[in-house]
Amino acid sequence: MTPQDLLRQLPAVDKLLNTDAAADLIAQYGRDNVVEMLRDILAELRAELLNGHEHIPDIVTLAAKHLSSDFTPTLRPVINATGIILHTNLGRALLSKAAQQAVFDIAGQYNTLEFNLESGKRGSRYLHAEDLLKTITGAEAALVVNNTAAALVLLLAALAQGKSVIVSRGQLVEIGGGFRIPEIMAQSGATLVEVGTTNRTRISDFTRAIDANTALLMRIHSSNFRQIGFVEQPELAELADAAHQKNLWLVDDVGSGAFLDTSAYGLAKEPLVQDSIRAGADLVAFSGDKLLGGPQAGILVGKKTIIEKLKQHPLARALRADKLCYAALGATLDHYRKNDAIQHIPLWQMIARPIADIQRTAQRWQTILGGEVITSESAVGGGSLPGDTLPTYVLALAVAAPDAFMAQLRAAELPIIARIAEGRILFDPRTVLAEQEEILITILKRLLAKA
Ligand SMILES: *Cc1c(COP(=O)(O)O)cnc(C)c1O
User: Ligand 1, atom 10: nearest CA belongs to which residue?
Assistant: First the structure.
């Protein structure tokens, strides 16, 4: 057949649109998208036929495939088999079932975001998490903004613009994604005064640096790195005393925002928010989606006079949290109030998961998929507890081309993210949700049969 004969065999768009299969696609993706896709495919086929190709595929099937891939959202669920519990690139903390339900309920219905049911008048969104945060941390007041980066920008702009902030040289950190404390200070119009040395700073370094222009003393937790050896930092209570003697405030950026003690699980101790308040910090900043196990949020707790000042600042409006955040945060905080966070918040369930249970799961996978169950390490991650790990068991699969296999895992209908060690691919049950296990096994079985 000549290319011209083949071209004549190509169906017209209208004819394709009249098929049942096309009707399904139209219902799913809208007529315009289906028409455009069919036209694109036909144009491509025409070019191919003129170039000597002789095969005409099923055009509607091809359109279905392309449309499905075009309409797959860029933000989609994955299976985290890395064993890194707070994986910043994979969305950090997972919400508890109660928090998921709260988001669902508030997302689809009108609600009391800024409405006072008693008076029938306008209410304040700020109160939704405030009482819970006060109860849990012992602080006088609280404020929620978009994230901790935003919390720092807000507090520095509101409390230290045109003034100076004293920070230990060992704490001038980069938090992640190029977010650096000195640059944030500059952005907020505060002047940074560095004291001490990289490894050692004493309380006298702070007291000597205080002058008429000082607004704040600030401590920043070294969340994502660890200094060992000849190191020294003043205690928080000493810093608070030094600040208060000069009528200044002490701000503590604890980063992770733990309410529960990680050392109960064989990990190092992350600073607890309630300890910072008790030690005398006037304002404590921490994240909602790290060790708190809630939604992305920057939480500020502390003195009522300070929080009121922050609420009044114009930036508070720009950095405010939305209703879905409040819904999820409220339900998450409820777990701490009811003392069932370990049972219901995925992050704590994963940290507290018994090793024997992880081993049993890995062995179950191994009986179906082969490979070897070996000991390994899970990490808390999320820029917390650097270098600290939890013992775990993983399934190690040896495949001919590990990098290519990892790419296939990522291309699966539910993408699987794993890690490679010594040429084998490791799957850590600790971070794989129970409801994802079956699909994980199905995908792996299929890929291993192909490999
Ligand atoms: C993670 C972290 C931040 C930033 O928190 P986000 O909520 O991600 O903006 C700030 N400070 C410290 C010490 C942190 O660990």
Answer: 255
Q: Give the CB-side neighbour count of residue 100, counting CA atoms within 13 A.
A: 8
DSSP 215-232: EEEEEE--TT----SS-B
Q: Which CATH architecture has domain 97-340?
A: 3-Layer(aba) Sandwich (3.40)
**Secondary structure tally for the chain: helices H, strands E:** 20, 18
CA distances from 155 to 112, 143, 194, 312 (A): 27, 11, 18, 11
- 87-116 pLDDT, tens digit per residue, is 999 999 999 999 999 999 999 999 999 999
Domain ranges of the chain: 3-70, 79-88+347-450, 97-340
Tokens of 206: 């702070």
Pocket flag, ligand 1, residue 147 (CB < 6 Å) = yes
Q: pTM above the 0.90 mark?
A: yes
**181 touches ligand 1 (CB under 6 Å):** no
Q: Which CATH number fits domain 79-88+347-450: 3.90.1150.180, 3.40.605.10, 2.60.120.10, 3.30.70.20?
A: 3.90.1150.180
What 8-state DSSP symbol labels residue 43?
H
DSSP 171: G
Cβ atoms of 330 and 105 closer than 8 Å: no
